[in-house]
């Protein structure tokens, strides 16, 4: 990363916590970035995400909330290393314990760095941030610190229902640009946000509607409409779960991929909320930059 | 079945709609019951469940609600047969369309025969019946007719979460007789019934609790407690979905296996409801008996 926060080069690997043992992390990292390292001196490498989990490379213990986002580096851990060119710091995740203020057990790893990216742009940011995904996170920030957060199983629930449940016979490609799919999505968001208790019945209702509803189009248009509706039910349930937090905020900052952020923006706008957006990859880079600035030497 | 409704013999097969093509049903049936058939004359064989689905043996079209339970046989369909000893009637399922009274699209196949079993015992039964299972059904009966019903994906949702989601790392054997598991189950039922909007966050909360909660026991006792809690969350969401119907009824008739009915009884009693119980297999037999009595000749 340049001093102005631009990425100078990029390398990817599909290896991670689910496929690597602890000793395999260093060679995997070297395969990706070894060519970038000067022959002499130690190059600082900042790492966020599951590499710092107990089952990852080396544990970087969770920092409890409230936690300042400009100070994540104080919880960084250094794994044992073989290559003298590396100086690796694993950033910690955040945790939350049950308390009298209504907080419940929760954890994040990786998303705290994206939130730090938000704080890098607005150091004293206060407000509500949403990070859509497999395990979607909502975080309340106050003056650049995370004070509480809540994780929803939205993405995973959706994927399981699409691929493994009886609904798979009725669902097609989930493309909100297909005819009437935005409407089907938004209607479902509104229905569940207003009546979250009906979530499980509405799921089976998708199957029944496929069997019975003569007003639906046939073929791909039918299955696309039902897939859009399922997505709306899953996201609507999440929005019902943050209703109280949303009632105190005019707007929400979305941090994530363009596709998912589009979908959440549509849902939130349908419920009368404004959104700001921050690209998820840009947020990671900005968060790592902020952490680097505060790294203990 | 004897004239008094007792089963005289029993045969099972694990083949069904998911593994049989239409022409395979008759030989599969004959392998199971061929030895019982007299050499001459046609023996009536009444069939309920998915054999009457469009993808089954031969379609017996859904009867729309309201539907009298002593008259299911009027919708029976006869598949083409090769063996002259057989006279097969496939009983219909029930369907419900969206209407101005708040009904939504729904279907059942098989459960209507169990409900007919209830009507066989109490011909003018009025009240609320619950049939727990993969796709749990709640039906309102008025004077021996089903007037509306609602299906919940409870059992399937539970199974997917236990076996396929990130929660599988935290869940163990789900045995409510293990220490403190009944309490964990009932607490979860109450929590979600009162706040169904928190369902998806409570799911991830199980994982976070496993990672963070020092007050939980360790090992099998920990994973059993969390599994009981997941079951409570799933059933609690269903009970939240029938809150309005439950508010009009003092008691619920449970029709199902002993294990599942025990669990639902516990949940319903925790919310202040009384339960009656009817064994699921006995209900099928009684329902088939009632249908036989009204079979068009």
Automatic annotation (TrEMBL), chains A, B:
InterPro entries: DGOK, DGOK_C, DGOK_N. Pfam families: DGOK. GO terms for biological process: D-galactonate catabolic process. Keywords: Kinase, Transferase. GO terms for molecular function: 2-dehydro-3-deoxygalactonokinase activity. This is 2-dehydro-3-deoxygalactonokinase. It comes from Billgrantia pellis.
